[in-house]
Fold this sequence. Notes:
Layout: H1 19-24, H2 45-55, E1 59-61, E2 68-70, H3 72-91, E3 95-96, E4 102-104, H4 105-108, H5 112-118, E5 123-127, E6 130-133, E7 136-139, E8 144-151, H6 156-166, E9 175-184, E10 198-208, H7 211-232, E11 237-241, E12 253-260, E13 266-276, H8 278-283, E14 286-288, E15 294-296, E16 298-305, H9 307-316, E17 333-337, H10 345-360, E18 363-364, E19 367-368, E20 371-373, H11 380-390, E21 394-398, H12 400-405, E22 407-412, E23 417-418, E24 421-422, E25 425-428, H13 429-458, E26 460-462, H14 467-473, E27 484-489, H15 494-505, E28 510-511, E29 514-515, E30 534-539
This protein binds one RNA strand through α1, α2, β13, β16 and α11.
Amino acid sequence: MSVRPLRAGQLCPVQAARPALRRARNFAFSEPLMQRALDINRSRFADWYQAVVRDADMAETSPVRGAMVIKPWGYGVWEQIQQELDRRIKATGHENCYFPMFIPLSFIAKEAEHVEGFAKEMAIVTHHRLKMIDGKLQPDPEAKLEEPLVVRPTSETIIGDAFARWIKSHRDLPLLINQWANVVRWEMRPRLFLRTTEFLWQEGHTAHATEAEAVEETRKMLEVYRSFAEDVLAMPVVAGEKPENERFPGAVNTYSIEAMMQDGKALQAGTSHFLGTHFAEAQSIKFQNDAGGMDFCNTTSWGVSTRLIGGVIMTHGDDDGLRLPPAIAPRQIVVVPMLRDKPEDTEVLAYCESLVEALGKLSVFGQRVRVLLDLKKIKSAEKRWNWVRRGAPIIIEIGPRDAAGGNITYMRRDTLRDGDKVRSIAVGRQEFIEEKAVQLLAEIQHSLYSEAKARLDANIKSGVTDWAGVESYFSGSDEEFKGWLRISWSKPSGADLEKVDARLKTLKLTIRNAPSQQPDTFAPCLFTGKPGVEEILIARAY
RNA sequence: CGGAGCGUAGCGCAGCCUGGUAGCGCAUCUGCUUUGGGAGCAGAGGGUCGUGUGUUCGAAUCACACCGCUCCGACCA
């Protein structure tokens, strides 16, 4: 099965979901219709993405422009992400805190680059009271704040303020803090999960006595993100360092993990920043060293957000909707009883209940298996397709014959179809409970990763050494799948880097990162012809 | 915020050019039939056609403004 996205016009124009839907559409079908759970396929990737978010019941837009409502199934995925990542953050010695969402304007102003980077996307609170004036409810001019508050776009400054008070001596270091919070960045072009005005994230902030220790922390957390993305989200990534022009405002170095979406675009899925003493100097985060002198701390910050959910959708989704890796599926196994208003319904239900109870006692990925018996009063067939669209890893259907024969019939969401046909697999109840269930969940987790990993590996092209090669690789229609290029460069900076960036921009390309794994020797710089010092990934990006 | 396109029932769309006061499929509800699984038949509910102003005897349809969405550009986790 090809994992590459379908190209425009490659398949029938629309893969209608239900037979009757086909009649409603003004399309002439020359080929046998492929019935899918979505009414759109990945050839129109942006529309497909929105359809998955909607049909999988993940989220919807809200009355506030750019802000989204995360629905139970989408939030359930976030809760799984939080739970497992929180465990890993704590396992590396960090503690959770909570800081205010309001930051005094003067705090933000302290670090010059930091202000510049965020000034354009700030929400500002200026009043603390409303008043009816001329029949209109509006901010009371007499209740103006002496100092405006910005709604945090990130918390370096307010946490730095606390750090300055908390840290006195080298014995207070390292200070390792994390917080789960919402942040606001006034985005011009919102997209559900990928870029919203308000989003949920986790932000780690640490302070260290030495540069070496802070750099190590920065890399350690990048590695936590890499392994989390790959092991838990089944989303292969390339970890590496961002070029100078893509750094976090105020950082010395920024590292990222980059994931490849099914349209070939790169998604920055997590970042880790070494901040040097920039914020420490701006905010006086100092400590007395063991020789009695005063030193500035070296600080770091790192974060991942609800954007990860968008990454999961665009990594694993198919033409039937979402496919969730079992490790983050709010429900890993969903049992759909096939009821038909007949006496044997009672037996079917009892059989389902005992099955769900037995499955719920199993463990996988170090936790109890999450099972749901779907008793919603809608047609059984409708239930099945709802769970297909939502991406439940295993969907079990139980009819009277299963109940009587001690069997179960299941579908794997990752390999739902054989050609166009849905694959329903029958197996003995005991066998399923005792071996299959756990084994299948592990297998699905693994197979989703392998599929995505194969796509990533197959679509990072090396060996292009000149600009003409870049142009030809990224030529053609924008609808077409384009992967990434891995090229050698001389790592220019300042104005020279800007030139490179401008050139890349003509092809809508950006430098993603310089992968951590580098070869021993380098081809000459693709841009300047000078000796190469590093390999970087260039790609179109979200 | 600039360029383009689009906003008609929960979803997907037709109607708009050539104004006469709203239609299709899916979904929803009811009844009957059906039942190893995305069922059939009959009937029903649901829309002040994004918002406002204007033109007109009459506006989903024409004009203007605003709002929102999508794509492209600038910005970004």
